[in-house]
Design brief:
- The chain is mostly beta strands.
- The protein has a domain of about 90 residues: Photosynthetic Reaction Center, subunit H, domain 2 (Photosynthetic Reaction Center, Chain H, domain 2), CATH 3.90.50.10.
- About 10% of the residues lie in helices and about 30% in strands.
- Strands 1, 2, 3, 4, 5, 6 and 7 form a 7-stranded mixed beta sheet that branches.
- This is Sporulation protein YlmC with PRC-barrel domain.
- It comes from Kribbella steppae.
Amino acid sequence: MNELTHTLVRLDDVGLTLADPADDLRGRTVLDLNGDEVGKVDGLLIDEDEQRVRFMEVGSGGFLGLGEKKRLIPVDAITRVDDESVHISTDRDRVAGGPVYDPDVVPERHYLEEVYGYYDAPPFWGPGYFYPGWPR
């Protein structure tokens, strides 16, 4: 099965908002487990059915937006959030080697399975999945 039973959408592309504006991670710096900068949160992918954030879209590299690569990082990789930053459980080299994300293409199940597997996180559609609460 290659299709999800849930629809993932970019928060910027739909008329939804987060219940608590403090949970909006867009624009925050992503820091790895060593405190090194990974990139910026450019967007959030939400599960439209359950209205939960599932992935951060993180942009890194490039200059003035040129050559920047986008990657999805599951919210399951978040260890801490503060006013300026989102801290994740892996290092930036690992993120840099992860699957590249194309925001113009709707992610299919096999791609999302690859992302979850890369970050050693269970997929949200799997049995026994527990939402980590970042953001709420």
